[in-house]
Amino acid sequence: MLCPFALASAQALTALGLDTHLEQLTPDRLFSLDMVVHLAAGTCTISIEANGPQHYARCCHADTSSLPAGAAEPQLEHAADLAEGGGDAAGGWRTVGSKRLRDDFLRARGYLVLHVPHWEWDALGGDRARQEEYLVRRLSGLLLAAAAPPAGARRKAPPGGGPRRAVRATTAAAAVEEMRLLLAERQRAVAAAWAPASNGCGGGGGAS
Questions:
Q1: How many domains does the chain have?
Q2: 135 is a domain residue
Q3: pLDDT at 205
Q4: What domain range is 50 assigned to?
Q5: What distance in Å separates the CA atoms of residue 55 and residue 34, rounded to the nearest whole number?
Q6: Structural domain includes residue 207
Q7: Residue 65: what pLDDT?
Q8: CA distance 9 to 77
Q9: Burial, 203: exposed, middle or buried (Cβ in 10 Å; 0-12, 13-18, 19+)?
């Protein structure tokens, strides 16, 4: 069952007009995803993960080079164990290894993966407009990065890597365009909703 944080994220995605599905299994039924957004006629699939404190940890020793020779591996401090429920990436918090491995498995299955850290969502203060703007910004950045040519694109691609990456970039570019059109349509709807009120406010001085 999704937490309120994830449900609020899903509601904001739906309000944006995105094709959003909750708690969806991967086709091989090995992974359950918090939220899945389909773009570009279903050819671009984004897994959106609402990450609570249990998904983050940080090393107790910021500089591991200071550890004595032969010392044990530095201990990890888990955000879920702290009274304040965690911090932010600037404070040294990183996604735990099991989550990173899971992301790699999802990407290998063709998903784009977007994490929504709990501290970033909390900072929006429950404001739906800010939540939607945040998700648009994060999704747009993810799609633009996926659509961009890989570093060193002029060099010969490794066997088996080029065509798949090209197809993925093409579908991501189509998804970028779809999101742009969805947002333009939403902005027109918002403007139309405000137009009657604006006209009413400004129409008091026409007749004498």
A1: 1
A2: yes
A3: 44
A4: 4-57+75-146+166-188
A5: 14
A6: no
A7: 54
A8: 27
A9: exposed
